[in-house]
Hints:
Distance between the termini: 34 Å
Radius of gyration: 18 Å
Number of helices: 9
Structural class: alpha+beta
Amino acid sequence: MSGLLQRASLLSANKGLAFxxxxxxxxxxxxxxxxxxNTFYYISESIGFNxxxxxxxFSTLDFWDGTIPEENKIxxxxxxxxxxxxxxxxxxxxxxxxxxxxxxxxxDDKVYILGNEDFSENTLKELTKLTESQSNLSNQIFDxxxxxxxxxxAVLNFLEENKVEDFLNSQAKTALKNEIYNRxxxxxxxxxxxxxxxxxxAKISYDSSIDSSLLKDHLxxxxxxxxxxxxxxxxxx
Length: 237
């Protein structure tokens, strides 16, 4: 068992996995947790949702009560069955083009949405026991370089450019921050270590054989899907 999966297994046996460890273990590429806040839902954790999709995720309690009336039941929607269309409103055009099906389940104050795959019994058990915090990522790499990435200004700029309403700002900021950190965790799951140093920054250690300029280019390309042109506001140290 790899160090990552061993750590994931230990977490699962105790308090449950952190979301970023969960997606690494299960290799999910499109997964969102919608959390109830007053009379609407917003994305609290995600992977594969670009910035526009995150902003489109704000939805009403009435919508989910109408479309997913029963808790703890897996609902399946697909293009083939012609019943996925009410849910496409939560995704940007770019993400819609990649979607063929959705698995959706509601439990307590959360709605779990999985794209293009089916929930298994085991992943559902893990999913409903996820911890609130994100875990650091540690691989055994002996000769490393390191950089620190801070994306707070980039997130704030993205929200400003998209004119997010004040009462949604805090939830949107959290959702964007978590999507970015989850992407970083997936990207470095094999080639580096990540230590979260603040809500909007992380220290990244990576194998010294990797070209740092090329690494930054790849990361910026990935994060541009979330932040669009605001990605230029990311600070590297």
